[in-house]
């Protein structure tokens, strides 16, 4: 994202949502657990911007993912009002905002992985590209479920808020399935746009 105005807009949105998220959240231990990936993403993007700038599409997708994390951190995933409104509208018993988070966990990393693989010419044949991207997203999702388990074991009182299972027996499996669906949809919907932006970056 070489344009200074777009960089400023990106950072303005990030820090505005971060400040709101940090103001009187549900509880700070859960807030830190949920928002830490967004803060790490900011650091990584700042460190790599000079020698490996990403396409605008990927930068804005990462920002959207960060917003999802920060909203979840403010309320905890089980208590985000949007999830409650959807549950009331559909008549469902569960706040499913966490499922949006896991869908995005596949959707956004799919484009990040695709960009890194293409630009570094890791995959010689495009026929294998989608399979490897989806496999990476599933690996990330599975690893995140392990991290949730480890953090829950260590965090005690914050475990239930962080896990957000809400008593759903198949929570882990559905989380990984939604990450898979997100990765597949990103590839189907965004690959052509991504290729056009990659051509500009490569030129």
Topology, element by element:
Elements: H1 4-22, H2 28-48, H3 56-75, H4 81-90, H5 97-119, H6 126-155, H7 159-163, H8 171-202
Helix pairs in contact: 1-3, 2-3, 3-5, 5-6, 5-8, 6-8
Describe what this molecule looks like in 3D.
The chain is an all-alpha fold and 203 residues long. The chain has one domain (4-202). It is built from 8 helices and no strands. The chain has helices spanning 4-22, 28-48, 56-75, 81-90, 97-119, 126-155, 159-163, 171-202. Helix 1 runs parallel beside helix 3, helix 3 packs antiparallel against helix 5 (97-119) and helix 6 (126-155) crosses helix 8 (171-202). The longest helix is centred in the C-terminal third of the chain and has 32 residues, at 171-202. The radius of gyration is 18 Å and the shape is globular. The chain starts with a helix and ends with a helix. 34% of the residues are buried. The model has no long low-confidence stretch (mean pLDDT 87).
């Amino acid at each position: 994202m070489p344009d200074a105005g777009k960089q400023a807009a990106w950072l303005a949105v990030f820090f505005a949502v971060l400040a709101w998220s940090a103001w009187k959240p549900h509880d700070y231990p859960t807030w830190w657990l949920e928002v830490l990936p967004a803060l790490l993403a900011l650091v990584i993007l700042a460190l790599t911007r000079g020698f490996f700038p990403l396409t605008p599409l990927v930068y804005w997708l990462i920002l959207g993912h960060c917003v999802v994390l920060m909203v979840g951190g403010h309320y905890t995933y089980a208590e985000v009002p949007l999830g409650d409104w959807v549950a009331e509208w559909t008549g469902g018993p569960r706040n499913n905002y966490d499922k949006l988070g896991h869908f995005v966990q596949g959707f956004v990393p799919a484009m990040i992985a695709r960009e890194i693989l293409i630009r570094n010419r890791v995959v010689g044949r495009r026929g294998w590209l989608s399979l490897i991207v989806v496999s990476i997203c599933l690996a990330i999702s599975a690893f995140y479920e392990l991290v949730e388990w480890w953090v829950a074991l260590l965090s005690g009182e914050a475990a239930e808020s962080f896990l957000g299972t809400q008593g759903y027996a198949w929570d882990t499996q559905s989380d990984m399935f939604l990450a898979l669906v997100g990765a597949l949809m990103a590839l189907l919907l965004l690959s052509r746009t991504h290729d056009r932006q990659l051509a500009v970056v490569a030129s």
